[in-house]
Amino acid sequence: MLWKQNNRPPSVKSEPLRKAVPKLFLFCLVILAIPAWAQDTRFFRLGTGPVDGAYFPIGGLIANAISKPPGSRDCEKGGSCGVPGLVAVAQSTSGSVANVEALYKKRLDAAIVQADIAYWAYNGSGVFAGKGAYTNLRGIAVLYPDTVHVAVRKGVKIRNVADLKGKRVALGEPGSGTLVTARTILRAHNLKDSDLKAHYLKPGASADQMAAGELDALFVVDGAPSAIIGDLATRTAIELLPFPAAEAERLRKASPFFIKGVLDARTYAGQDAALPVMQVGVVLLAGSEVPETLVYGITKALWHESTLKLLASGHPNGKLIKPEKAIEGLAIQLHAGAASYYFDAGLIK
Fold first, then answer.
1. Domains parsed from the chain with CATH numbers
2. How confident is the model at residue 37 (pLDDT cuts 50, 70, 90)?
3. CB-based contacts of 172: which residues, under 8 Å, 6+ apart?
């Protein structure tokens, strides 16, 4: 018999094939394992804002905190305290308007948005009048207040918003909440874009042109202290326009989402005294189609003690993010998952 003569099992006909069998077996195990890993992982798109604003770094911290990729160490052992299997990615965007439109069209799972933009989009009013209501928007949490910075070059005769008429002013880039807020403030002073020499730029580009003497003023809606305004104040002499009590009340009547605030003295170089300012809330939204259990886990991870420490140490605005203010001023419907968490945590009844 051939088998007896060669003393070789008929199933293994050559040395190369015998060596290849273990590798082939290992390859098959890897292929079979891939679908199981993929099923345990969910990628989550979080819209933020321009890379030189506050939304992008804050969004990055939140994305990191709510993520827990397969294989991560347990929270109790110093590992991730996020949602098991979730991989959240912070995406840079133009800002609030672009974010709510992307949420509505399901190109994002969640996003950071100004509270007034969220309300108008949800109700199909304000700047969204005629576009229809973005009814799938849902709230997860109120994060912190944004401050309306109206910076002017020192030496230019601009003492209030009305003085911006005819001046070179950066109002924010298209799709940004800054542009919408700037127009709201201008409208309350009977001004429109055409009354100014309007520029539509990203925050960084606005600051560069201001420092180069190519702009007289700019709007930046950002948490204070704003890195953009702080850097600009070190490059050129600027002043920030105040919003006295009477003017603040007029703005609040025009848009109830404005909040009266105070900018502490020496927040920025050259700012020697406290300054009355206007603020708007910053909210974290999700689409209504995001599963309730997932949003419950995200909300729980957002308010975990380790997340609060990460936010407080990772960005100046992170210190303002507090669970006791999680739903204060949220003017749209809560996501069912977030509502369930807040009920369980005793924050709502």
1. 42-344 (3.40.190.10)
2. very low
3. 95, 178, 179, 180, 181, 182, 200, 201, 203, 206, 219, 220, 221
